[in-house]
C-alpha cells in the first residue's frame, strides 16, 4: 500500500541521513513521562499505553522500543488488540525509528494505513540568551488552564476531567502558561514539562483570532525562558507534519528535526 506521494504507507522520512537512536530512545522516554497514560505494561520491549475515556493516540498505542525485538509479531499484536478492545480502543501502533523493520513489513503486508504523521524537534537552550527575568509566570490553576486549552483548541468541554487527570499525573516539574486578553479571553496556552536537563513543550495552542500577531512567538519565548531558568539544557516538542504554521514558528525559534513517527492501525 502506498501514500499519495508514492511512498510505502508506513514510510517515515527524516531530514538527517541517519537517525541517532540513543537520542530517539531518550526523547521517547521523557515523552512518555511528560504525557502519562493511566495503564502501562510491557510485552518484551513493546510499551503498551492505554487510557480509557481519552482519544489521544499517544495515550493509546503500542510503542516498540527495540528494533531487534520482532519475535511472534502477529501473536503479540493479536494479544494487544484484545487489551485495546477491553479499553474501548482500536489497536494502534506508534511507528518510530525504534520499530523493528520486520514489524513495519508485517503492517505493510497487512495493509495497515498510516496517519497522524508527526515530527519531533529539539533546541539547544544553551545557545539562547534569555536573560535573568520572567515576563510571564506560569499559572497554578490546572482547571483554569484546562478550560483555556479546550476553548482554544475547540475541543469537547466534557474532556476537561480527563485533561486535568493527565496533567496532575505528570511527575516531573510542570509550568502552565496561559495568555489572556481582557476582551476576548484566553489567547494562548503552553504546558512545559521540566525533566532533568530536558524540557518538553506540550499542549501549545494559539487562538485563531490572534494568530500571526506575535502571540505564538511570545508564548514560546516565555515557555523556553522558564525551562532554561529551571535548569533545562535542551527543549523538545512533537508537532503534526501537516501543521505548517506551527513548524514555521518552531523552526524560526531554532528547533531542528530529530526524528519522525507515524501511527498505524488495522483497516476497519
UniProtKB/TrEMBL annotation:
Species, as recorded:
Sinorhizobium alkalisoli
Tell me the InterPro entries matching this sequence: Acyl_CoA_acyltransferase, GNAT_dom, Rv0428c-like_C, YpeA/RimI_acetyltransf
- Gene3D superfamilies xrefs: 3.40.630.30
The answer, when asked if Acyltransferase is one of the entry's keywords, is yes
Q: Which keywords annotate this record?
A: Acyltransferase, Transferase
| One Gene Ontology MF term | acyltransferase activity, transferring groups other than amino-acyl groups
Instruction: Work out whether the entry's keyword set contains Secreted.
Output: no
One matching Pfam family: Rv0428c_C
Q: What is this protein called?
A: GCN5 family acetyltransferase
